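Have a close read of the entry that follows and walk me through the local backbone shapes. See right below:
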Amino acid sequence: MLSTLFRIHYVAILAVIGSLFAAVLMMLIGGYHVILAFATAFGFGEGLFTLGNMSEATGLVLESIDNFLLWFILLYFAYSMYFLVTLPEERRKLGQVKMPSALKVESLDEMKRTILVVIVVSLSVFLLQQVTVSEGPFDLPSFFVPASLIAVALAIRLIPWDISNQVSDNNDDELE
């Protein structure tokens, strides 16, 4: 009974598969926005915004950057969930696998911090898009994005992350 209960972490594979499908979708949407930005800039089509061609193209490029950042967050989340929760024993074999350094995850704290940092960048791009494409004056709801950007950045700064100690402890264990 206990062995069955401890195998429930394999349910996290649903989160991994769902994140991978969502990552592919966001990559396709980002690519579509880049193609639409080129078509709009050269006058072949209409964009999503009601501005001039270059402003619309700029808004679409910023939208694609936001889509690609979300693609990276979803891909990073899927990879992290797979190696941290679903198959933690596979982490020992990572030395044999050539992975990009941006995708290597040592701990859950490192995963959370990386995702929060990418969310700050994504909010910054979204804010830049809102400022670039806005047609009218800013009202009270327009300040929710900068306020949330500041709140998440402060949270990243104020949370006592224990990433460096875990990495050095792992290196000490490998030396023994």
Notes: Residues 42 and 58 are 12 Å apart (CA to CA).
